[in-house]
Amino acid sequence: MSISRQVVAGEAEHCMVCGSGAPAQWIAADASGIGLGGLRCLVPAFLGAFYFLGGFSFARAQGSIDPATFGDLRARAIGPAVMSGRIAAIDAVPGPPLTIYVGAASGGVWKSTDGGVTFRPIFDEYTQSIGAIAVDPSRPNVVWVGTGESWVRNSVSVGTGVYRSTDGGETWEFMGLGDSERIARIVVNPRNSDNVFVCATGHLFDANEERGVYRTTDGGKSWTRVLFVDRDTGCSDLALDPGDPRILYAGMWQFRRRADFFTSGGPGSGLYKSTDGGDTWRKIENGLPSGDKGRIAVALAPSRPSVLYAVVEARHTALYRSDDMGESWREVNASWNVQARPFYFALVVVDPTDFNRVYKP
Fold first, then answer.
1. What SS3 class is residue 55?
2. What pLDDT is stored for residue 19 in this prediction?
3. What pLDDT does 52 receive?
4. How many other β-carbons are positioned within 10 Å of the β-carbon of residue 30?
5. pLDDT of residue 62 exceeding 80
6. What is the mean pLDDT of the chain?
């Protein structure tokens, strides 16, 4: 049984006209095919059209239509209202100056060398849907990009695998996993640049083999799938212990989208741990919700790697914390901001200097 199931009509974060954030059940389509919430949200548009057309008809009646009638009208920005406005991935190189790489949902990769004051596109010749960016901690000119956004709402696009740059984004090389379709995370071993892990979420609309956790030990020349559940379950998140790169944590997620529905969760979902660099994995669930789970986001505290946080989509979605390297967990927060749209806002980031400070979109 899936954890969440939503009609397509209910997936808009907000109405593009009035900006209201109607929950899915408010804007689900009725028998006529028009959502009740949608009618509510379209009222401002209807009123605006009424007044505009009314004024136009009055002007025509007065016989005063000429080029000057609309001469003072100017276009104004009301967006962004397109999916490329979403930021899907980000990584940075500590400055000064601070170098930032940003990946957009369908806008490619952008680079800033002045701490975010200005950006320029550096990935325009390749797939524009971005899922993950990782800067090599020991070689900051080496940048890895995983294409295919993993925040799988109904407007999501697809990717074509993994790419690498060795000159700070000036040139790129295709590194494989072309049928992964979307990638949620890339992590690089801080002690060995040739050792890289890819969290491949996989196909959205159908089952496929190229999903799960992949590892390379030769800088991307070859890949080995080291964690796989089934053809319906992909990797949702991946974390590596910087103090001991043999220790990894992976969230696995069963999901599927069709034209008329989206389902998140099932028996394939779970949280896994490896202590031998990905050779073997075991499921960790002591203290986590029982039963089927949905998407899982996981992160460890750089200042205290024994502390981990996980956002677990379940019947009772919540933020969980472990103080013993994932062996046991306890719920720490189940507020609305944590529970809202867990398949979409599935990201948790721990402050690099304060293991008690956590960020979540």
1. helix
2. 36
3. 41
4. 11
5. no
6. 85
Q: How far is CA 39 from CA 28, 43, 50, 52, 251, in A?
A: 11, 6, 15, 20, 39
For the record, the structure tokens of 61 come out as 């009646």
What residue ranges in 207-328 does DSSP mark as E strands? 212-216, 224-227, 233-240, 248-257, 261-264, 270-274, 282-283, 296-301, 304-312, 318-322
Question: Both tokens of residue 233?
Answer: 């379950």
- Residue 13 pLDDT exceeds 60: no
Task: Look up the pTM and report it.
Answer: 0.80
pLDDT of residue 74: 80
Three-state secondary structure call for residue 33: coil
Distance between CA 176 and CA 30 in Å, rounded?
45
Q: How far apart are CA 140 and CA 120, in angstroms?
A: 18
Of 3-12, 46-55, 230-239, which range is least confident? 46-55
Mean pLDDT within 314-330: 98
The CATH number, out of the four listed (1.40.20.10, 3.30.70.20, 2.30.38.10, 2.130.10.10), of the domain defined by the range 85-359? 2.130.10.10
Record the tokens describing residue 246, joined without a space: 């043999």
Query: Distance between CA atoms of 312 and 325, rounded to whole angstroms?
Result: 17
Element (H, E) at 90: strand 87-93
Q: What pLDDT, on the 0 to 100 scale, is given for residue 97?
A: 85
Q: Which residues make up the CATH 2.130.10.10 domain(s) of the chain?
A: 85-359
pLDDT over 90 at 233, yes or no? yes
- Other Cβ atoms less than 10 A from the Cβ of 54: the count is 10
The token duo for 294 is 């949905």
Contact 47, 55 (CB under 8 A): no
* Separation CA 343–CA 301 (nearest Å): 22
Q: d(Cα 227, Cα 315) in Å, to the nearest integer?
A: 25
